[in-house]
Amino acid sequence: MFTIITGAQFGDEGKGKIVDLISGNYDLVVRFQGGNNAGHTVKVGEDVYKLHLIPSGFLLDSRVLIGPGTVVNPEVLAEELDMLAEGGINLDATRVGVDAKASIIMPYHIELDGLRESQRTEKIGTTKRGIGFAYIDKVARDEVRMGDLADKEKFLKRLEDLAASKEAAIKELGGDPSIVMDQELIDKYVKLGKRFASYVTDVSYEVNKALDEGKNVLAEGAQGTHLDVIHGTQKFVTSSCTIAGSACANIGVGPTRVDEVLAIVKAYITRVGEGPLPTELFDDIGKQIQDVGGEFGTTTGRSRRCGWFDLPLLRKAIYLNGYTSIALTKLDVLSNLDTVKVCVAYELDGKVIDYPPEDTSELARCKPVYEDLQGWDSDLTGVKEFNDLPQTAQDYVTYLEDKMGVKIDIISVGPAREQTFRK
Q1: Which of 36, 61, 96, 154 is the most exposed, having the fewest neighbouring CB atoms within 10 Å of its CB?
Q2: Where on this chain does Mg(2+) bind (predicted)?
């Protein structure tokens, strides 16, 4: 069985928790795009793991893979492995694999990212971790790959070939070009390459071989649908394709092998950084949702903008991903609200539309058209079954399911594993 899991909104929907929850059913868990600009938090008992590159499936003994469509900062990968080792979780090359074709984020990528963002008159809200510039080099065929990093001579030759152009690019943006050939940084990367040499693998081969043998594979995306570099709210998007179809291309698996596509959907909506968010709340309710939901980024610590559930955006996400089922997260955060609103359409220039406009500037002008549902006062964090939810909370879930036209299979009412149940 081959399952793809993606976020249906702007990221931060709770993918890490759901992957952790269901990964016990999968032999392989594969990250297929993005870099350490994404983050997910997994809570097991009293232990909290904040991860940026390693898929969370390792907690239930799956083999986890980082696919060729990702961009990898080897220093961050080393830090995550060391952090987990300190907690008693030792992940060697039998537990983790990184594709030889995965692009490496170099120090000059991070430098270029920060310089470029600082010069923009209209900020994108980049995390300044070099992700975009690593992807630029992948497309331009100027990348350093994991396979290069693992071979000292190949790595040094590749860096020598690229140095002049990278130094010129940094100088043009007003930065210090000496970072490109800084010997201390080069030595660090050579050491990291040696450490990860045994982790290098062919992810496409591993995944296809596993499927041939009847094993189960879970492909995990980063960020969310509306941050997709093609289909998202340009230019306020990430640098990779976040939708389900890109899992096939970024891993190297034919689309006929896909069995399930699972959406992770928050019971409201959030966004980090710049870009349109039609249902954004600027009042006390927005602040309450932010505080109760702990809406602060795993990667950056930035506060997330919060809004009511946006059905037009979900309709587009369903078309873009072809979801077969939905996991609804953070339902508990909406407790203690008299009224829960759902955006069912937009008003744009005097017309009512039920699907997001293509142009980002038009989406920014959209005014939400709401339907009101009755709220609930009960604390949901101890609920174990759907039928034990307050009736109005059940009604909210059923309402969303009917409107989306895709079944909600999983409901989460808190960060812990035991706070999740099947509908």
Answers
A1: 61
A2: 12, 39
